[in-house]
Amino acid sequence: MLPMKCFSRLNCNLISRRIISLSCPVCHTHSNQTLPQIFTGQMDRFNGITIDSSSEKLVDKDYFSRKLDESLAKWTEEQRRCIWFKVNIKDSMQVPILAQVSVILKDDYVMMFKWLPLDCEPNLPPASHTNLGVGGLVFNNKDQLLAVSEKNYTYGHWKLPGGYVERGEDIIDAAVREIKEETGVDAAFQSLITFRHVHDMMFGNSDIYVLLMMTALSEKISKSEREVQECKWMNIEEYVNHPNVSEFNRLVVHKALKYKSKNLKMEFKKRTFKWPTFVRVINFLNVEI
Fold first, then answer.
1. What is the separation of C-alpha 278 from the centre of its chain, rounded to a whole number of angstroms?
2. What is the CATH topology of the domain spanning 130-264?
3. pTM
4. Contacts of residue 86, Cβ cutoff 8 Å, sequence gap at least 6
5. Would you say domain 5-99 falls under CATH 3.40.50?
6. What DSSP letter does each residue of 150-206 carry, written as one string?
7. Strands 49-52 and 162-164: what pairing?
8. Which of 132, 133, 217, 256 has the fewest CB atoms inside 10 Å of its own CB, making it the most exposed?
9. Strand partners, 85
């Protein structure tokens, strides 16, 4: 049994081979036919498109395949970025076609299950129901903090550098990586500040975002041209009073300053723990006063 919803990510850079076949009448079995119009979809602020199969009128596999070819060719020409397909259970025949040109979110496979007991409901957590991200509040020795303004936003903002934690990556390592990627600044971990937990985020998932206090090891900025519109060192007072800084980020800065004044440090410890049948390497929170 297929899960009720299946998301497949299509990277337009990976489908050139399939698009080339459109320009070759010999290669394409439907060269003498009128190709269907492209999928409608919903644009997002990252220049991507999400297609919902329940909103598209599709006749059969051949029709879907031809419409996919033309859509991908058009979106590549328009320099779109990530294309998402939300496949309803009734349209499951689309999955093997999409798999030929997509990067599946679970590496190279799709996990499906069939719950057999009839006397109870499945107690399995939904796949990828919570995202994990990390942000870094980076201080230098001039009472300044590192602020970024990202591309693809529809409103003015100054935020803290950060992003998603990758699979198998420790939270601190993710913060160091994201700060370096976005700003070019090297930073070292000092303390956990706080975290936020919100719901109904991307694809309806919950979202946990961890905020860390970091110390700058370098100050020269080399911003990511792909992600960042502007990046600079800002005086702390300027940042907390700036109209384009969110209320939550102001709270984060105030908490960090309070922790520093009281010499309070919340750090992560990593240890190996043993159980009767397995061993785990665990990161856990440790508070030093």
1. 31
2. Nucleoside Triphosphate Pyrophosphohydrolase (3.90.79)
3. 0.74
4. 5, 6, 7, 50, 51, 52, 53, 54
5. no
6. ESS-SS---B--EEEPPTT--HHHHHHHHHHHHH---EEEEEEEEEEEE-S-GGG-E
7. unpaired
8. 217
9. 8, 51
